[in-house]
Specification:
- The protein has eight helices and nine strands.
- The chain is of the alpha/beta class.
- It has one domain: 3-Layer(aba) Sandwich (Dihydrofolate Reductase, subunit A).
- A nine-stranded mixed beta sheet has the order 5-4-3-2-6-1-7-9-8, sandwiched between helices.
């Protein structure tokens, strides 16, 4: 049985004190996802409708820990993503540490089928333009259009390869990568053995879309994770896992 512990005034504090350095010196990849009690990862196609107020607060704060926020194209479309915003106090902490005010957004897309006039691209600060991770097989015309409003990065031949994507982001100085989904892209990262940390919110809801938090590619190996902490806010549960020792 879990026993109540002390109250936490800052919901980000237990996450902020985690040492996010990999033994191999590569970028640390953390994912922040929310699921219902039945494992659903969306309601009516949107994750936001599944999130509770405590989860929504932590979601916005967690971005303060990241050097870049990584997300799949379908999630950008469904959730109507814009550039990353942070509360003024979190911006101040980042400035004091010599970090940019906000992390840039990085969108993973093979098709480049996106609305390039959307705020995710047109609203980004000039010094932190949105990154677009795509593959060499992408349509040249769409590639040219994307280059007008974003920093385009090729990370794979026929699809975006997780290892190449992480290497490119590390080369740009992004040592802590925060993935916000979607389930297909997260499944690719897990399959490739790239996920170091999963912050999973369990929302007290059932009856959402039959879509899991992570979609495992066919033939992918099973990955093991170790539970590091459990937090509770009302009926919302926050679980933090790290990659198990046998996965390192």
């Amino acid at each position: 049985m879990l026993q109540p512990g002390g109250l936490i005034s800052d919901p980000l504090e237990p996450y902020a004190r985690v040492d996010r350095t990999r033994p191999d010196g590569g970028p640390w990849l953390m994912a922040h996802m929310v699921g219902g009690l039945d494992g659903c990862a969306a309601i009516g196609g949107r994750v936001g409708d599944l999130s509770t107020p405590p989860d929504a607060e932590l979601f916005s704060l967690m971005r303060a820990l990241a050097d870049v926020v990584l997300v799949g194209a379908e999630t950008v479309r469904q959730e109507r993503y814009g550039p990353v915003r942070l509360p003024a106090d979190r911006v101040a902490v980042r400035r004091a540490a010599g970090r940019p005010d906000t992390p840039p957004l990085a969108v993973v897309t093979r098709s480049l089928d996106l609305d390039w006039s959307a705020p995710a691209f047109t609203g980004a600060p000039p010094d932190r333009r949105t990154l677009v991770l795509t593959c060499a097989a992408a349509d040249p015309a769409r590639l040219a259009r994307a280059s007008e409003v974003a920093e385009v990065i090729v990370a794979g031949q026929d699809r975006v390869e997780p290892a190449e994507a992480m290497a490119v982001l590390a080369g740009l100085g992004h040592h802590v990568v925060l993935c916000e989904g979607g389930p297909t892209w997260l499944g690719e990262l897990v399959s490739a053995g790239r996920l170091d940390e999963l912050c999973l919110t369990i929302a007290p809801l059932m009856g959402g879309d039959p879509l899991p938090v992570s979609v495992t590619p066919p033939g992918a190996p099973v990955r093991h994770f170790a539970l590091r902490h459990v937090l509770q806010a009302d009926d919302t549960l926050f679980l933090r896992y790290e990659r198990g020792r046998n996965e390192r």
